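Changelog entry: the Rubredoxin-like domain-containing protein record was regenerated in this release. Current contents:
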Amino acid sequence: MRVYRCRICGDPYIGNYPPSHCPFCGAPKEFMVPAEEWRDENDVELSEISRKNLEQALELELTNAGFYRAAMEKSKNEYFKAMFKALSKVESEHASVICKLLKIKKPEIPKIDASDDDLENVKESFERESKAIKFYTKSAQEAVEARVKEVFTVLVNIESTHLLLDEGTEKMFKN
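Regenerated structure tokens:
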């Protein structure tokens, strides 16, 4: 057994091998490093544009986490409950990563409403994730700090996997 840490969120993982994705933030395997090699890369002097984009990203991640929490609580289906719970945790972890860069305490996740219909919530999830991808792509291009650019780029990758999950779930339950 070994201990690995995610270069994006910093959380530790114990296993014989690194996971395919960080179980906490969803970063791809290449961001999982042996714990002894991990370094905190979040002490970055932020440009004005990066600070503004990170603050907007924090709001986006917190409201998405709140939406997924509400969708989980309203669902009567175990698959959807599990999916929305996992997505809420991942979005909350993204908020934590952003707070580390902003050097602030993480705010509470807001109460957000969700539909009573699981497939309607999947559609809203798709819209929310698409909006995040568009914003993070722009933010990565605007970032002048290598670490901020890296975090936004990885967030695009992670949110893209959420789109694939939404699409696959919708197909699975529509039929």
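The chain has two domains: 2-37, 48-174.
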